[in-house]
Design brief:
Radius of gyration: 24 Å
Shape: elongated
Number of helices: 2
Structural class: mainly alpha
Number of strands: 0
Helix content: over 70%
Strand content: under 5%
Order of helices and strands: HH
Largest sheet: none
């Protein structure tokens, strides 16, 4: 492969690695309050109960 091809390949690899690094660096965890977590779990339990009911009705 000519030198230009290697340079082009290195630029592509550096761009991909740089993009992944920036994505990792800027990713933030979303803090969820106790109340919201309780509501989420309650809603999930309700949905699972509905699904179980639908499966039993079949």
């Amino acid at each position: 492969m000519p030198p230009f091809g290697w340079i082009f390949l290195l630029i592509i690899i550096a761009t991909v690695i740089g993009g992944l690094y920036m994505l990792r660096k800027t990713a933030n965890k979303m803090p969820i309050s106790e109340e919201k977590m309780k509501l989420i779990k309650q809603r999930q339990a309700e949905l699972e109960a509905r699904e179980r009911q639908r499966e039993q009705d079949r």
